Amino acid sequence: MSDAVPTRVVGDLSDLPESASGASHLVWWGNIGFMAIEGTAFALAAGAYLYLMSQTAGWPPDGVRPPDLLWPAVLTLGLFVSEIPNLWVRRCAKAKDERGVRIGTLAMTVLGLLLLIPRGIEFGHLNVAWYDNAYGSLTWMLLVLHTSHLITDIGDTAVQSVWLYTHEVGDDQFADVEDNANYWTFVVLTWIPVGALVYLAPRFG
Amino acid sequence: MSDPRTPAVELGKLHVSWADAPGIRGFFTTVDHKRIAARYIVTVVLLLFLAGMLALDMRLQLARPDMERMTPQLYNESFSLHGSTMLFLVSVPVMEAMGIWLVPLMLGQRALAFPRLAAFSYWLYLGGVLMLWVPHAFGITPDLGWFEYPPLSGPAYSPGHRADIWAQMITFTEVAALAASVNIAATVLKMRPPGMTLPRIPLFVWAMFLASLMTIFALPAVMMVTSMLIADRLVSTQFFAAAAGGDPVLFQHLFWWFGHPEVYIIFLPAAGFVSMIVETFSRRTLFGHAAVVLSMLAIAALAFGLWVHHMFAVGLPRLGNDFYTAASMAVALPAGVQIFCWIATLATGRPRFDTPLLWVLAFIVTFVIGGLSGIMTASAPLDQQLTDTYFVVAHFHYVLVGGAMFPLFGAFSYWYPKATGRMLSERWGKISFWMVFGGFNLGFFPMHILGLQGMPRRIYTYGEGMGWGPLNLVASIGSAIAVAGGVLFVANAAWSYFRGRAAGPNPWGGSTLEWAAPSPPPQHNFDAMPVVDSLTPLWTQKRELAVMTGLAVDRREVLVTSVVEAAPEYRQKSPPPSTAPLLAAVAVTILFVGSIFTPWALVWGAVPVAIGLTLWFWPQRERSTTGPLRVRNR
Q1: What is the pTM of this model?
Q2: Is A181 domain-assigned?
Q3: pLDDT digits (tens, 9 = 90+) for B104-145
Q4: Is A60 part of a structural domain of the chain?
Q5: Measured between CA atoms, how close is A187 to chain B, in angstroms?
Q6: DSSP characters for B532-580?
Q7: What's the complex ipTM?
Q8: How many structural domains comprise chain A?
Q9: Residue limits of the Cytochrome oxidase subunit I profile domain (chain B) (predicted)?
Q10: Scanning A13, A60, B55, B299, which has the fewest C-beta atoms within 10 Å of its C-beta?
Q11: Measured between CB atoms, does A45 come within 8 Å of chain B?
């Protein structure tokens, strides 16, 4: 048994390539879908922060110092600098440069792990605990939310790097590397509004 | 009819490539969108039965004044379980399920974009079902309604884990729905058959696409807000604690940012069913296709601008209330345009009144009544009087049962022959239809009047002196008839599965591609890729359906096309069956369940999740022969 209606062949698809990159690739759109979900979560978290900020007389509340700036500055600088190797990996992936993506993902894993150091220290310099007040809860929520994305992408990059070093790299894997690099850029870009809220809103809000 | 140029050997290979493993192994590893959708639907039917029994129990309690057969606590648990089940475990998941089943078939495809993600979505959804119903079996049941507002649900007033169970059940189901939505959206964008340009997309596919986008932008809100609630309860954050600078109203804003679009996430697929059924049973192309698509777009956009109309009684600024009144009423315009297009199609076509169309007509009547009571409650001053009364109970049952369940029953009746290869009994279908439709209206229309008479919702009993007894008795009788009709509907489906008349590929003379596949479709759906030249390919290519060959038969492969023109771009490998989605879902379940007891579950629970996901995405390719970690002793 086969298709239930009479058919007429009008073309052949066997000449089509077996892979694609960028927005042509199916997985690229899945990646965009998950960025949209997570971007919405960031936007709503920021909305919650701004909402409570607008409802509260003192921000931060009296007696609470705004978070310290040194370590977030280090992290922010690090995130921006990380875009240089990240965009390089992305270019290697597009050029299907096997050696480039192997080295690049390894470098990004190491860089990502290094960036977790200032991020970890940041938590100790927020000058408020999550249970002190709603301001503290929101500050921690934004930072935890962003950190969870950092860790996820570093983990993903690490697994990808191990796989790339141990296996034959095909077109689909180059596309995966490109998607992962795009995701890192997403994590870096989301830090701009999130970081601004956590560190600047208590000072200038 | 087999394509002469596809020899039997090739077809045999195709069957083997797409076949599941036999038996229990196939059950746990399948990534077939039809099997996944079927198990979603079987689960939903079971839950519909349970929620229906809860409803009957409550109606029995309210049938007469001063009844003492239920305690207030049991009544609270009953409506909480009924509402949470219907909103989170039935309405949204069943629409996702219909999309998972239908979208690839309507697109002439062999699979969804991400087959394993669909399997993961079901297992996680099942986790949500068990999260709510297993504790219930042990007597731990959420008891604060289907939206659990703090401070009542906060740590001070709700000790124990009832509220946590509710909150985490939501996380399960929302992750499942988000996974399904990304899958459906990517499938619609990149896997349309050659020739299916944007204007040629069937309306149900449009509806699922828009509902998926709405899901992506709405559901993170409820996941976030319930996580914040759990955090307030578990680690003493102060999000909703007014004394520490928090605000319980923030919960309501975030909840309804999700909650209102959710209504349309349920309604848009239902409108998609209606469009497809009206077209087939009117035997003409839908009147105003573009207008219906634009109406759905308008509804999807406006849905994000009216959440505050659920909060008119909170005491927000009056100007805000005015804005949300206007925005709420504005939805009536695109909703009305759609209804006029359906009526125009029926009026100018040659309608045949089989069961699927009866459900659609019932939908139009019921939904219009629900829409009109919606315009009433959209008016802030009137809402102040009606809120928390039975008028609201009547309204939302009219829009949700009338607006979503009736089209769903119509859709079940319409596509049942395709899914099973058998026809439902028309006779029993019509009897069950009249019982559900009649019983529903008898059951719920009196509630409008009860609400206007001042009967509050969520009361376990009322005094005889209130004078609400007779109408409540009528409501209870009507509900019982509707539930009996529902049972008959399912019995008809069960009986017809074994004894129904053979359906053939296209029993209704449908126009879209799913009717070109055999009934039931084989695991690979189509032998060759259909090519589309119109909105109604089976009507415009009556003699022969144009197809393209050349997709692999010895492995799983699907065609990927361009976003706007649906021009063929490349052939994509489609992943084979795997236990990874199930293992990943079990790992996520451990994390979710653990995290209502200890925040550290987020840390240790992440390890099995990471392992599960790594197994899932680990590509199967040869070991490297280059680089420092190459294989050296091959």
Answers
A1: 0.96
A2: yes
A3: 999 999 999 999 999 999 999 999 999 999 999 999 999 999
A4: no
A5: 17
A6: --SSSHHHHS-S-EEEEE-S-SSS-EEEEE-TTT--EEEEEE-PPP-SH
A7: 0.95
A8: 1
A9: 18-533
A10: A13
A11: yes
